[in-house]
Every structure is written in C-alpha cells, then in structure tokens.
Amino acid sequence: MSTKERIIQASIELFNRHGERAITTNHIAAHLGISPGNLYYHFKNKEDILRHIFMLYRQHLDTQFKPLQDDVEVLSQLTHYFDALFELMWNFHFFYDNMTDILARDAELKADYIQFQQRLFEQVKDIVLVLNNKGIIAIADEDAAELTHMLKLTVSFWTPYIKARRQSGELNRADIYQGLLKVITLFSAFATDAGREQLAALKQTYQQRQDNI
Amino acid sequence: MSTKERIIQASIELFNRHGERAITTNHIAAHLGISPGNLYYHFKNKEDILRHIFMLYRQHLDTQFKPLQDDVEVLSQLTHYFDALFELMWNFHFFYDNMTDILARDAELKADYIQFQQRLFEQVKDIVLVLNNKGIIAIADEDAAELTHMLKLTVSFWTPYIKARRQSGELNRADIYQGLLKVITLFSAFATDAGREQLAALKQTYQQRQDNI
DNA sequence: GTCTATAGTACGATAGAC
DNA sequence: GTCTATCGTACTATAGAC
C-alpha cells in the first residue's frame, strides 16, 4: 500500500476511534511512524485528507446503491442494500459526528456533499416508490419523501446517537446492527400485510447477525 | 441581566450561529464587549459554560415534558409537547452538531447527559404507551422502544441533517417546523384509523405555522 | 467585578537537507 | 519520497493592577 493510501486508512481509523476533532495531522503521522513533513508531501492539508475520504464514501454508495432490479428477488436486493449500509455506517461514522463542522470548514467539500446527497435522496426515494409499487409497503406520494428523509437521517445519525448514550467504550458492530433494525422498523411501519412478512424475515436476518457477534 | 447570564446567552447565540467549535472564549468576550479575563472570572473554562447551558436544556425539558394527563384532551397536550420541542430544537441546535465532541471532552457532562437521556427515554416511551392505550396509535410492545428511539433521534439530529443540505445561510424557524412534521409522520405511521385524523389535525397545525413565517 | 498583558500550549503548515 | 527543525498562529487560561 502506498504511503498516500496508508495515510487515508490511518486517518479513517483514528478519526473513527478518537473523533476527527481530536486527531491532528501530527497524530496521523506519528501513528504511521512517518514525519509530519512527509504527510504534507502527500496531502495539502487536513481538509485534503477529508476530501479523499469523502471520495471513498461516495464511491462506496455509487457502486452499492444501484436501483432495484425487477428481475431479482426484492428481499435479496434489500439485504444487499443493508449490507452496504452496514459498511457505510461502520467505516465512516466519524464523519457524521462532526458533519456540520467539517462541511463548514470546507465550502468545496460541502458543495460536493450536498450535490451527492441530493442525488442519493432521489435514489432512495425511487427505492421507496418501487417497494410501494411492488406492494411491500403502502405509502402516500407525499409521505414517500418524508420516509426517505427519515431513512437518511437514521442512517446518518444513528452512530452519534448511540455514542451519546454510552459512558465509555467504542462503537461496536452490534451497535450498527441495532441501527439497521431501526431502518427496517421504519419500512415496517408502512408495510402492507404481505410486505410485513418479508420485512420480518429481513429483520430476523439482521437480529441473528447481531446475536452472532 | 448579570454578566454571568449575559455570557450564557451570548454563548448560546454564537454557538448556534457559528458552531461551538468555531467560537472561542475570546469571541464570546469580544461579542459582549468584555475582557477575556472577566469571562474567566465568571466561568472556569469553556466546558463550564457548556455545563451551564446543559442545565438550561435539562430544565426546559423537565418543566415542559410532564407525563400525559388523563383528564386533558390529548391533542392539546401533544401540541404543548411539540411547542416545547420547537423551543428545544431552536435554542440548542448547536449542541447536537457537536454532541460527540462536546461529551468526549467532558466526562462529567457526559455522565449527566446520559443519565438525563435515560430518564427522558422512559418519559417519551410512557407517552408512546399512553397514546397506544388511548387508541391513537397501535404499536407492539417491542416496537414502542424502537419508535421512542426514532423519535429522540429525529428531534436530536434533524437540525444537523438540515444544515448539511444547505449551501449557505442559517437555520430558520421553518426548518424546525419541517422537523416537527417528521416527528408527526413517525407517529402517524403507527396511527389507528381514529388516531390518524387527530394526528392529521396536529400536522395541519404545524404546517400552518410553517406557512405563516 | 473588570481590565490589560501575557504565559503556555498545541496545532497547521513549510523550508531545506538528504 | 522522507526527514528534521521550526515558524506563525490561535486559543486557553492566568497574573496582577485597578
């Protein structure tokens, strides 16, 4: 792995463990056993590192959140989405902790973030509408947008929410599964009788994964 | 107003406007036209200020979130709750932006926060259960806790969520109403046929207030 | 209770040698 | 590509005069 990549990976790890605010460029360099000067050879500044991490974030969602396909079973596609959400919430939770600050410091990153989230919103809303058309959920047109907002809000801020309820100790994988179950509950609240069973099966899948940790 | 109180009020105002991270003790003093030394005469440090603000936060919830009373109409009590939530989300939104950091820096504040949130969780869950018993919503026992988490999550993080969708400009009152409508949508998702009408009325109330801004 | 002045620290970032 | 050394800056917090 190149030094540049190692800096990215170490940054993600340290940001997630100690928080973005607490980790300085010197910490990152020290953690890798390289000099601060070397870090600054590879990155213009701390914001530059954050922009590269955001690119990984975006890339993950771009590759994993394709629209629902008609010829594949819904439940297996939903499972794929939830697996991707798990990775997202696990790998980038530091970002949601300090989102307002990080974006306030870097207007360019903020513009990119907003643009991406607007696109993502439409993609998630499409999924909601397809689930409606397939009879998994029954939701009024105006509520589809509301539900989409709530889904995004929950995925984004479940990790800060749970961290604020814990006296000490790090976030663990079981916490993420708890969050995914909240997302499933959101869908279930709008489920049809037929859809309720399928979502219950999905719920059971992730409850088992949580128990197996 | 005493200097101590003025410092508290100025801090809340500046934190909300520019973010807790961006505002230093010097900024607060300069904003009030007092010296940094004077500020430090009244408060031990920045964390001390934050603890006092948290006391106001707790006090607001303690006085406004009494349990549902049986002899008063439900809808008017819900309206009272939502009015209180509006004040909360409007006055303390800076806190949710940086919650993880603020709590990570101050173990004592974190302990107080956690204890308070645990109590608050039970209070909100009681409200959910009473609404269930009154036939406004119909929710399984296990889902009551899930809904309570989602209600708290939404109230806490709606403001950071909305800030991250806006290129520039401050949070405004209409944004808060949007968040309250999300909370109402959460209740509506579990509403009975009878409850749906009452919640629709509640929704209309806050949509009108939003339009009247 | 309030001021001025400043000590102390930590962080971001760069220059210049190898 | 990597290092050492360091500068400038900004912030927290305190000392001491009034």
Description:
The structure is a homodimer of 213-residue chains. Chain A is mainly α. The first copy, chain A, has 2 domains: 1-43, Arc Repressor Mutant, subunit A; 50-211, Tetracycline Repressor, domain 2. Chain A has helices at 3-18, 25-32, 36-42, 46-64, 74-91, 93-97, 99-105, 107-133, 141-163, 173-189, 193-211. In chain A, α1 packs across α2, α8 crosses α9 and α9 (141-163) runs antiparallel to α10 (173-189). The radius of gyration of chain A is 19 Å and the shape is elongated. Chain A starts with a helix and ends with a helix. The model of chain A has no long low-confidence stretch (mean pLDDT 97). At the A-B interface, α7, α8, α9 and α10 of A face α7, α8, α9 and α10 of B. Chain A binds a DNA duplex (18 and 18 nucleotides) through α3.
Query: What structural category do the secondary elements of chain A indicate?
Result: mainly alpha
Oligomer designation:
homodimer
Radius of gyration of chain A: 19 Å
The CATH architecture classification of the largest domain in chain A is Orthogonal Bundle
Q: Averaging pLDDT over every residue of chain A, what do you get?
A: 97
Listing every helix as H and every strand as E from the N terminus to the C terminus, the arrangement of chain A reads HHHHHHHHHHH
The CATH first-level class of the largest domain in chain A comes to Mainly Alpha
Main beta sheet of chain A: strand number and arrangement? none
Number of domains of chain A: 2
